[in-house]
Amino acid sequence: MVPITLTAFALAACGHPSWSGAQIGADGDGPAIRLQNGDVVIAPNARPEARVSAQGALSIGGKAVVVTPTQRAQLLAYHRDAFAVLRSGLAIGKAGATMAGSVVGSVIGHLADGDTRNIQYTADQQADRIRQQAAALCGQLEVLRQAQDAVAADLPAFAPYAVLKPDAARDCRSAPHHG
């Protein structure tokens, strides 16, 4: 199992302002960070959901948490960084779909011509681009983890919602998509 999963349900997320369905998971079965109606929602096991709005407001279990201006700025950075990771994940998903269509088209075209040499080259080029995007996503994941840790250190109510572990970016980089 890949330690960090990034999923996006394209029909719900692409082009929709709420980005519903896009999520970052601490692992396949663990707590998740997802986007819902413009908010970043953190849902750790056995705890009420926390929500970080685009304005830097925090609510836990539906109740507003009073934050200082510094904490609000940290929550804004966390919100921004979560959206950046999810945008990258969506871009990788789109690139993967494009790659699949391109490779199928290449296979059909080259089989019709009787020339199969360029099929692997086309696939390899596109896979390299996706690997580069995945590496950038892992870097963004580290930025998000740092933003999360800054909020958790300064706002104790947020600490249980710091679901990205210190090795999240390392685990992301060692996942099969970088092979």
Structural account:
The structure is a single chain. By secondary structure, this protein is of the alpha+beta class. Helix content is 52%, strand content 14%. The protein has four helices and seven strands, in the order E-H-E-E-E-E-E-E-H-H-H. It has helices at residues 10-13, 69-113, 117-154, 168-173, and strands at 5-7, 23-25, 32-36, 39-43, 50-52, 58-60, 63-65. A hairpin with a 6-residue loop joins strand 2 (23-25) and strand 3. It is elongated, with a radius of gyration of 19 Å. It starts with a strand and ends in a 6-residue tail after the last helix.
Sequence of secondary-structure elements: EHEEEEEEHHH
- How many β-strands, per DSSP? 7
Q: Average the pLDDT over all residues and give the rounded result.
A: 74
Write down the overall geometry. elongated
Helix content: 40-55%
Major β-sheet, in short? 7 strands, antiparallel
| Percent of sequence in beta strands | 5-15%
Which runs of at least 5 residues are low in confidence (pLDDT < 50)?
1-20
Number of helices: 4
